[in-house]
TrEMBL record, chains A, B:
The lineage of its organism: Eukaryota, Metazoa, Chordata, Craniata, Vertebrata. Residues 2-205 form the Flavodoxin-like fold domain. Its cofactor is FAD; Zn(2+). Belongs to the NAD(P)H dehydrogenase (quinone) family. GO terms for cellular component: cytosol. It comes from Mesembrinibis cayennensis. Its EC number is 1.10.5.1. Keywords: Cytoplasm, FAD, Flavoprotein, Metal-binding, Oxidoreductase, Phosphoprotein, Zinc. This is Ribosyldihydronicotinamide dehydrogenase [quinone]. SUPFAM superfamilies: Flavoproteins. The enzyme apparently serves as a quinone reductase in connection with conjugation reactions of hydroquinones involved in detoxification pathways as well as in biosynthetic processes such as the vitamin K-dependent gamma-carboxylation of glutamate residues in prothrombin synthesis. GO terms for molecular function: dihydronicotinamide riboside quinone reductase activity; metal ion binding; NAD(P)H dehydrogenase (quinone) activity. It catalyses: 1-(beta-D-ribofuranosyl)-1,4-dihydronicotinamide + a quinone + H(+) = beta-nicotinamide D-riboside + a quinol. The gene is Nqo2. The keyword Zinc applies. InterPro entries: Flavodoxin_fold, Flavoprotein-like_sf, NAD(P)H_dehydrogenase_qn.
Length: 223, 223
């Protein structure tokens, strides 16, 4: 099995860095082939611009990124960084997105890599999206505590924050979503607790392939 | 009154470009002073990195963007592009965010400009956030139709998508949020309809200052 880890944290020594390493180790041990896109290290470009289109535009009078990326994808005319990421996505059975507090660089990866033609092409979206045989898992850390992110908590149920990414982007492309893996407020807990977080993640990964995707409908998020 | 328009679209001829110009015109006519941050034209940097911190780090052993930006803000050591945006925010009574399908460059503006110390500083968040005398309005266009973005529609209520931005970011910083202004699927309607969209926006702006902010609680989003 092939796993792509899309990783967005500036600091390898962070808990996110450790969670990424734990995943590489455990999944490799299982015999999976693991690829990491380390977005900050790659200085991945988050801005969706004309530079993503090699050669002439489909409509040079009025630039429409969605249409241009779609046309460029069809003729193999996207910029090299995008073609490489799309190859990794294409080959992956599972994509793990690892980050702290959804940063723009991660959103930029989704905006630029998962373009029309490659990931969706109306009416092929949601259950018939073009990436429909793939799985995704959002693994991340928060600044706020678990209590703040509960229903009725000041920040609201953490699932509310996941809707735009898990449903609006992943499900839109046909990707099935496994339950998120969340480490709350690692900056405010003991070293001991942080170690437990790493162990729990490694533990979960051991039986990951037996998990069923969540039911990615409003009920799961807003019930 | 002072208005800051944070604008993220690559093409001036787009409907988003026109909506931005309509707002500049109408608000200037009212005697407001209007500033535009045209993010793509500025090639605004969406990545939150060590480059945002001028001089030495607070902790050079382990880079924590949130902590470093906070410390740098306090000593006036953020990079110039951020200091300039923060000045614009500081002076504004109202911020209008104009975009198509929330792009990473806009998220990057929020990640990097609205840092701890400037926009929030625990426990000064949500109703006591540091930008509590300001208003924000999200004005944007979608790819999908109104029906797709209704409760029960395939994409779910559009308000679900607004929660992370309006509540998680704006409300978190104390900013009061006016009802969003949404133009659905301008790419699929007639030129006539697009003109009506521009007129409706100009019309709304005429009485904007009399509007009450929404009740930015889960009820507004998920009822």
């Amino acid at each position: 099995r092939k796993v792509l880890i899309v990783y967005a944290h500036q600091e390898p020594k962070s808990l996110n860095g450790s969670l990424k390493r734990v995943a590489v180790e455990e999944l490799s041990k299982q015999g999976c082939s693991v690829t990491v896109s380390d977005l900050y290290a790659m200085q991945f470009e988050p801005r969706a611009t004309r530079n993503d289109i090699v050669g002439c535009l489909h409509n040079s009078e009025e630039f429409n990124y969605g249409v241009e990326a779609w046309e460029a994808y069809k003729r193999g005319g996207l910029s090299n960084d995008l073609i490489e990421e799309q190859k990794k996505v294409q080959e992956a059975d599972l994509m793990i997105f690892q980050w702290f507090s959804m940063p723009a660089i991660m959103k930029g990866w989704m905006d630029r890599v998962l373009v029309q033609g490659f990931a969706h092409e109306f009416p092929n979206c949601y259950d018939s999206g073009l990436l429909k045989n793939k799985l995704a898992l959002f693994s991340f850390t928060t600044g706020g505590s678990k209590e703040m992110y509960e229903k009725g908590g000041i920040s609201g149920d953490i699932r509310y924050l996941l809707w735009p990414m898990q449903h609006g982007i992943m499900h839109f492309c046909g990707v099935k979503v496994l339950a998120p893996h969340i480490c709350f407020a690692p900056e405010y807990v003991s070293e001991e607790k942080r170690k437990e977080m790493l162990i729990a993640w490694a533990q979960r990964l051991k039986t990951l392939w037996k998990e069923e995707p969540i039911n990615c409908s409003p009920e799961w998020y807003f019930k």
